[in-house]
Amino acid sequence: MPGPRKWLPSSLIFLLLSTIFSTVLVYSVPAEDPFVPSLPEIPPPRAENRESLYRQLMQQREDYPDRSSETVSRNSSSDPEEKAERSISVPAQESIQQRKTEPKAEKVRPLPAAANSDIPNPGAEAVNRKIEEKIEIPQPGDSDREKDQKRFQKEKNDIATRLSRDAAENADEAYTRSQKAKHGEKTEAADSKLLNGIEPVANRHYRYTAPAYYKGIYINNYVARTKSMYGPLLKQARSSGVNTLVVDVQPSLPPEDFLKEAKSMGFYLVSRVVVFEGGLRTYPAPPEHVNKVIQRAEAAATLGFMEIQLDYIRFADKLHIRGLTLTRRYRAIASILQSFEKRLRPHGVRIGADIFGRIPFNKNDIIGQKMEVFAPYLDTIYPMLYPSHFYGDPFYQKNPYRTIYDGKTKAIRRAGTSRIIAYIQGFTMYVGKSGLSYKDYIKKQILAARDSGGAGFIVWNPKNQYGTFFQALEETN
User: Fold this and answer.
1) How many domains, in total, are found in the chain?
2) Please, what is the end-to-end C-alpha distance for the chain in angstroms?
3) CA dist., res. 152 & res. 399, Å (int)
4) How confident is the model over 61-96, as pLDDT tens digits?
5) How far apart are CA 84 and CA 38, in angstroms?
6) pTM (global) more than 0.70
7) Across 273-302, average pLDDT
């Protein structure tokens, strides 16, 4: 068999030569292939280089917006402040397009607004400035908006469900009455009016003169009982043009020294009285609790407060009790208002109440607050029109002027003879959504309160930090 013996040496020689050739070819290729872009070395995220990594990430998102669905969703956001941070000038965009056509040997570049760049980039400069100065500006992300939207939709669905239950129960009651009437049984007369039988107190006289236009701030109970805190605050408020103080009288009444000093400075004093903390959760309301709250309101009037402002006079937002229809909710609240009137009118004080900001926009509401129910018993109504609290409604969250203006005008149309004083936002929650500075955000609300008519505004800040508001008020006076 001579054939196989001759083929075996030749195949071994061929295999050996091919191995040698492959080895030489592999090791002759450069370490960095010029046709394959090298990947940048990314250092670990240590504390000292987080800012630089963040800047590089922001620049990559601006250069390649189509490579990440997350980036696309953020760029499509309607938040003005976020757009300002991500926006770049036209020359910068053209430069980026040119760089895209160049070899991609380096993908991580410094920000255009850096010192070694001649290209203006206001968006990048804003990012750099906020990082370096560590300015804290509320910027809710996409997940926050989705949560707000889901919560808003859930609240609407819950209210719609409860309203439908109330309507069904009303229909059942009406059918039962009609069946009894057919069989000659006695039935209760249906109310021709919502508030029939719950008449407000007709006699009203006032010991004090109220401002023609309220310009007020809220003062919590702790500050009102601490001389070192309320002293400077009252002086600054008076010099800025504030004429009204809304003061907590729970859990303790403010000292007489506070009232003397406030009255000597010419402030109109309003006591804030919480009726049902978190909203009423039972039906009917406990008489002992209502009487206790009325006693505290009477004590505030005796102490020298000129107006009593009732807060949380409503049902809990998610309360459902079988048989507690909307009509019964309204009548229950009206009865409580009537009880306050009977006890407080003899003191010669005005009576007001806070309502949710959505109430002027709603015809009916599950919490039992309704403009037409409150108006007959009250001298003043305070809709809490904080733009931040219009969850799920980005238009009003981003337009503080329109929030106050629309809310007040709608409330005025339905308030009868009651005066409308809006609570406006004096805290930083979601201010960034408007694209305005905190001071300009407050100024927009002040101007809207003035332009929409009514009887003024009260600024709410739970910590009583009003420095920015005082500046805004002085600039708008």
Assistant:
1) 2
2) 116
3) 18
4) 555 444 433 333 333 444 444 444 433 333 344 444
5) 33
6) no
7) 97
